[in-house]
Structures are given as C-alpha cells and as structure tokens.
Amino acid sequence: MNTYITLDYELFFGKSGTVDKSIIEPTQQLVRILNKYNAKAVFFVDIGYLIKSQQLEHIHPELKISSSKVIKQIKDLVANGHDIQLHIHSHWEDAKYENGEWTFPMKHYRLHSFTDEECLELVKRYKRYLEEISGVEVQGFRAGGWCIQPFNKLKKTFLEADIKFDSTVFKGGKNIHGAHYYNFKNIPNLTEWKFLDDPCIEDKDGLFTEIPISSYRVSPFFFWRLIFFKKFGGLKHKQIGDGFAVNNGILQKLRLLFSGSYTVVSIDGYKASYLKKAFLKHIRRYKTGNFVVIGHPKAFSTYSLSKLDTFLHEQEQQIKIKTFRN
Ligand SMILES: [Zn+2]
Q1: Ligand 1 centre and the CA of 46: distance in Å?
Q2: Which domain holds residue 92?
Q3: How many Å lie between the centroid of ligand 1 and the Cα of residue 10?
Q4: Residue 153: partners with Cβ closer than 8 Å, 6 or more residues away
Q5: How many structural domains comprise the chain?
Q6: Contact 257, 220 (CB under 8 A)
Q7: For 252-303, what is the HEC assignment?
Q8: N or C: lower Cβ tally within 10 Å for the chain?
Q9: Is 326 inside any structural domain?
C-alpha cells in the first residue's frame, strides 16, 4: 500500500502559538522518527504566514527571526528528500500582529471570498514564494480548513497557476456551518482519481488528480475520549504546540459529539491511536492504492508520535512510503 505521511505545516488560528513550539520542535521530533525508517513526508506549507511576516518585519523585527527559522527548516526538509507542497489559509491576507500575537479576521477564511482575479493573483503569489524559498517546483495543493468547494471558483486558478493535484477531500467529511463549509459525503470509492469541475466527481479525462486523505467512521464516543485525554491525559497527551485552534462552530462540535461521523486518519493527539486499526481497515477495503495520513505538527503529543513510531515499525513490510514528488 502506497503510504503518504502528509503534514499541514502551520501555526494555530485561534491563539497562534510560537514558531518554536508549534512548528519547529514538533517537526524535528517527527523527522527523527521518520529517519529511523528512511521515510519521507509531504509538508503542505501554510505559506501565508511567511508572506505576512515578510510584509511586517520592518515594523516587527522579531518576525524576521522566527520566520527565518521556518524558512531554514523548509530548506533542510527539501535537502533531506521531503516533499513541499502548497497549503493556503487565505485569511493570512488580513492577519494582524499586535503584542507578540497574531489575530485573524475571518472575512477571507475561504479563498472563495475573493474575486476570481484576486484569487488567481493570491494563489500564484503564494506558490511563487514557496517555490522561491524551497527551490523546488510546487504543483500540489491542500485547501486550508478543507474549503475547496465550490470548485468552479478555483478551477481557472488551478489551470493558470499550474496546480495539478489536490489532497483536500476525505470520504464522509462534512461541516455545513458558515465559513467552514465543506461536504465530501459523496466521493468516488477510490484512493485516487482524475477530476476537472469538482474534486468529488471522477472525470477520467480530467486535468487534475485528487489523492484523498484516508478516513474512517467513528462513533460519538471517539470524540468524548479525545476530549477526555486532551484534558486529563497528563503530560504524554499534552499537545506540543502552544496555541489553540479556531473554533469550528458549535453545531459541528455537537454533531461530532452526538452522532457518528467520519474523521481523517491522523497523527494528531489521541487520533493517532487509530493509525493501525484504520490502516488494516483500509487494506481490507481497497487492497491496493494509497493510504494518506494527515498530521499537524502543532497538534502532536509524545503519545501521538510514539503511536506513529509503532505504526511505522509494525507495518514496515506492508507500506511503501511515498511523496507526491516521486
Ligand atoms: Zn491548515
């Protein structure tokens, strides 16, 4: 089974947290584990952070110090064979930096909030800057907050910015509330497909490729346990990152806590306890193809990293770790 370890490489959007604790340190810990298995990962870099830092560093010199650590880490990742691709949280456009903290107006949370021309300009600019600092060509995309629909807004941008594949969709994923909207209820029963007008619909002649994040169905108890371990699990369950996430909407929270739902296969926190189970289920279902794991370094814990280590160790014979570049 081709296995992709994909990371959303970013700060938090509630309270942003520090670059050291929320990006650099957990990424170093991850790389130490990957090195044991000579495994390479795909880093979807939230490049908006670096662009905004660059714009403001003449007023806040400390931004240059922290962003240069991130740029150095990205260069090191590339030099060591890891893959760098594009992750866009477009609300960085309005982000403000005051008293050592980022704040994020939600107006441009979705790329869709821009006109077609603005959207194209933004994506091209973000992609160009990521290519400039990483030194490699970038053709892969993951939408911030899973917000890729409706795709007709982004199709022209993908074509003109030369983006060829996407890894945003996950089977069963759904949040119907406001700015967070996405709905991946009906997607092909495949681990990869071509598309043109909609990443959730296969089009054999499509110009883009969707490589969906793997997911599995969980009962509400899963999220109750997740909250429990986060609050009372002690040090090993404590997230390494020192910020917190943007509120996902109370209705979404209630839905997850009181009805069954799908969740992504993930290295984050308590979710990492399902890596092996989800992998074995995935093999039974698809036999071959791709198994795509997602992670956010900011949300790793000692527990979740040790679960990843165990997973890579136990399944070493069955998985072939790949990146999108190869
Ligand atoms: Zn993100």
Answers
A1: 7
A2: 2-321
A3: 6
A4: 111, 112, 116, 119
A5: 1
A6: yes
A7: HHHHHHHCCEEEECECCHHHHHHHHHHHHHHHHHHCCCEEEEEECHHHCCHH
A8: C
A9: no
CATH code for position 115: 3.20.20.510
- The residue whose two tokens read 């039974």 is 284
Residue 316, in any domain of the structure: yes
Q: Are 7 and 266 in contact (CB under 8 A)?
A: no
Q: Provide the 10 A C-beta neighbour count for residue 151.
A: 21
The pTM score is 0.96
The low-confidence residues of the chain, meaning pLDDT below 70, are none
Residues 6+ apart with CB under 8 A from 143: 87, 88, 111, 166, 168
**How does pLDDT run across 131-157, given as a tens digit for each residue?**
999 999 999 999 999 999 999 989 999
Predicted confidence (pLDDT) per residue in 4-37, tens digit:
999 999 999 999 999 999 999 999 999 999 999 9
Domain assignment present for 68: yes
State the helix-helix crossing angle for 302-314 and 25-36, rounded to 10 degrees: 20
Q: How far is the CA of 317 from the centre of ligand 1 (A)?
A: 31
Rounded CA-CA distance 171/141 in Å is: 18
Distance in angstroms (rounded) separating the CA atoms of residues 16 and 97: 10
Can the peptide bond before residue 150 be classed as cis, meaning omega within 30 degrees of 0?
yes
Residue 181 CA to ligand 1 centre (angstroms): 14
Q: Is residue 24 part of a domain?
A: yes
Percent of the chain residues topping a pLDDT of 90: 84
Q: How far apart are CA 301 and CA 210, in angstroms?
A: 29
